UniProtKB/TrEMBL annotation:
Signal peptide: none annotated. Gene3D superfamilies: Tetratricopeptide repeat domain (1.25.40.10). It comes from Amphimedon queenslandica (Sponge). GO terms for biological process: intracellular distribution of mitochondria. InterPro entries: CLU_prot (IPR027523), TPR-like_helical_dom_sf (IPR011990). This is Kinesin light chain. One of its GO terms (cellular component) is cytoplasm.
Amino acid sequence: MLRHGEDHPEMSNVDFYIGLLLSNAGHYEESQAYLESALRLQNKFHGSQSITIATIHHLLANSLTHIGAFAEAKQNKRKAYNIYRTEFGPDHACTVQSYKKRELKLNSHLVLFDAILVGRPYPRTDNIFLVLVGFAQIR
């Protein structure tokens, strides 16, 4: 930072990697700040439709989901998906995977909120398909 200054294109990479490391360590709020900075700098120097921007939106959505900012997370997921669709096409693996993850995350949070509102216990499992199937059978 001292060598280039805060608004240098290389700082977007530094912020991106710090945000990624913080997210992987479970420090989602701190990660959000670095990823938003990386996003701002990438937009400034490389435009809003690069694959790097899509990746940052994806990681930012992950951090936002973990801190409970679901509306913002959904917007970032949508932006990532739209960039992948524009750059790679609708049938590319990145586009399809981005869409599926967006839908699964949204559905899993709807299931959780439904469980809370109705007073059902929320099953603790890493397999979201089991959660969705379990709640579908209860209904």
